[in-house]
């Protein structure tokens, strides 16, 4: 199925807006990280822990693109900010597992309350079908972004 001229124009307009939208989300994440007393990579690590649960520092390093030494310093900063705890891995007592604290997650979440409210307002007048289309687009875009990040990482 080929796109008509109007569809191509809409795709172009969307592709033109996406970088600005993403830049503002990065800006928000940076501001939240600063308010929490950590740097952006640390904040990304906290998100990984929230999504995937506790992990070893090595696994976290791989997820956020750091060396093992950098991951140790990242965990130190997050622990000092009250965002994570370290514990011995119950499956292998030689390993350490890092877990997000409820307090750290609640603090991070509180900074996004305004954006969440605004986004809910933005979506309030969308139809069920429009929401399904948006969800499908975001799911596909996420998969594409993951694939592209993996490709770029593998070629470095």
Describe the structure in your own words.
The chain is mainly alpha-helical and 156 residues long. Helices cover 73% and strands 10% of the residues. It contains seven helices and two strands. A two-stranded antiparallel ribbon has the order 1-2. α2 packs across α4. The longest helix is centred in the first third of the chain and has 32 residues. The two termini are 36 Å apart. The mean pLDDT is 92.
The number of helical elements comes to 7
Kindly state the number of beta strands. 2
Computed CA radius of gyration, to the nearest angstrom = 19 Å
The multimeric state of the shown protein is single chain
Taking the sheet with the most strands, its summary is: 2 strands, antiparallel
Strand order of the largest sheet: 1-2
Instruction: Please state roughly what percent of the residues sit in beta strands, choosing from under 5%, 5-15%, 15-25%, 25-35%, 35-45% or over 45%.
Output: 5-15%
Topology:
Layout: H1 5-36, H2 40-52, H3 57-64, H4 68-80, E1 84-89, E2 92-100, H5 102-111, H6 113-123, H7 128-154
């Amino acid at each position: 199925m080929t796109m008509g001229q109007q569809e191509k124009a809409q795709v172009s307009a969307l592709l033109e807006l996406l970088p600005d939208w993403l830049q503002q989300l990065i800006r928000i994440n940076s501001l939240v990280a600063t308010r929490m007393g950590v740097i952006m990579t640390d904040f990304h690590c906290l998100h990984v822990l929230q999504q995937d649960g506790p992990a070893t520092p090595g696994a976290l390093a791989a997820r956020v693109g750091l060396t093992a030494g950098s991951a140790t310093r990242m965990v130190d900063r997050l622990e000092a900010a009250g965002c994570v705890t370290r514990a011995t891995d119950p499956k292998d007592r030689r390993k350490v597992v890092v877990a997000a604290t409820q307090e750290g997650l609640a603090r991070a979440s509180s900074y996004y309350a305004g954006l969440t409210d605004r986004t809910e307002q933005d979506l309030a007048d969308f139809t069920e079908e429009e929401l399904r289309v948006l969800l499908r687009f975001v799911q596909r875009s996420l998969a594409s972004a993951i694939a592209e990040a993996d490709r770029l990482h593998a070629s470095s």
